[in-house]
Amino acid sequence: MTELARLITSPKSLLVFETVARHGSFTRAAKDFNISQPSISRNIAQLEQDVGVPLFVRGAGGARLTDAGRVLYAATSEGLGRIGEAVETLRAQAGATESEVVLSLSNAFVTNWLGARLAAMSEQFPQAVLRFDLVAGTRKSVAGEVDLATLITEAGPDDIVLAPEVIVPVCSPEYLASHGGMLPGDPARLRAGHTFLHLSDHPRTIWDPFLGKNAMARGEAVWHGFSDYAAIIQAATDGTGIALGWLNVVAGSLRSGRLVPAWQGRWIDTGRVIRLQSTRPGPMRPLAREIARWLCDRMAEDLEAVASLGAGPETLGQSAADCVIQDRYSVE
Questions:
Q1: For the domain 101-326, what is the CATH code?
Q2: Which residues does 28 contact at the CB level (< 8 Å), separation at least 6?
Q3: What is the rounded distance in angstroms from the CA atom of residue 186 to the CA atom of residue 301?
Q4: What tens digit of pLDDT does each residue of 192-247 get?
Q5: Contacts of 18 (CB under 8 A, 6+ apart)
Q6: How many CB atoms lie within 10 A of CB 203?
Q7: Which of 4, 46, 118, 322 has its CA 20 to 30 A from that of 273?
């Protein structure tokens, strides 16, 4: 097929031609394009020169198509109509893409913290179409292009920080009442008669700051393993046993009393943070940034309320827990 650019001096002349033919008037076409009538006439004259035949019969009543003009009008009307439909479709798709926000978050975080706030979040951002990409266990990197993802890292100066990485053993109030809490400095009391809920992705040493070294190997308690952290928190809430609670996941449950600290010592602050980040090229989209700030504000409210429990974080020092940090465990 011959390239149109080699046949027509300017594609604009086709747009002008279609408008004149549709209106049957050079004057009305000039108003549509907001140009003078002589400019319309020059465009038509150039197009007629390109195709080699007259396209209009000009008269006092307006512009009437010639037989050749009718052939060209049928083609331009159909072609431009299809182009217009395609442009409208692309605009609609672009609008949908602009309003869609992809969140790559842990299943546990969404189930235990964000889920209770989704209605408020939707009300705050009615234009946002949320798509959740949920992660079951440990995450060490974010795959693909998403608008917001959580990742536990060292803090950076430009990070959007959702929460510090603070860990505390948690259980249901009923479990605490029937089994008692764990007391620092009393290893026998720490382990005997308890059921512990462990995320299989994590190294066993993750419990060392609370239970001492090799706690899982000593057989002084029941250990249940899970591949999904959300299932662990649900089991703890149901009274099955004690779980390690990441504060960004369990803050809402601690605030409401569905979970309580099972550890009577200071909570552990690893010195790292749960960061909200975008993996799309370029700066974070404005809508995604607004949602990130909203999430941070809601989390700050929970953390402030949890602080009233009287317990708080304690940064890990040189201890058996150091190997945990080196293994880069994380649950967002």
A1: 3.40.190.290
A2: 19
A3: 34
A4: 688 999 999 888 888 888 887 776 666 678 899 999 999 999 999 999 999 999 99
A5: 73, 76, 77, 80
A6: 13
A7: 118
Is 296 in contact with 160 (CB distance < 8 Å)? yes
Indicate the residue type of 201: D
Instruction: Report which DSSP code applies to 284.
Output: P
The separation between CA 7 and the C-alpha centre of its own chain, rounded to angstroms, equals: 49
Rounded Cα distance between 38 and 289, Å, is 51
Take residue 101 and report the two structure tokens written for it. 């926000």
103: nearest Cα among 326, 314, 279:
279
CA atoms within 13 A on the CB side of 47: 25
Distance CA 301, CA 290 (A): 17
Ranges of CATH 1.10.10.10 domains, the chain? 4-97
Where does the chain hold its CATH 3.40.190.290 domain(s)? Answer: 101-326
CA distance 65 to 311: 86
CB atoms within 10 A of CB 124: 13
Q: Is the pTM of this model over 0.90?
A: no
Beta 62-65 vs 56-59: how paired, if at all?
antiparallel
DSSP element (H, E) containing 211:
helix 208-211
Residue 54 CA, distance from chain mean position: 58
- Alpha carbons 48 and 50: distance in angstroms, whole number: 5
Residue 261 corresponds to which amino acid? P
User: Which residues, at least 6 apart from 323, have a Cβ–Cβ distance to it below 8 Å?
Assistant: 203, 205, 208
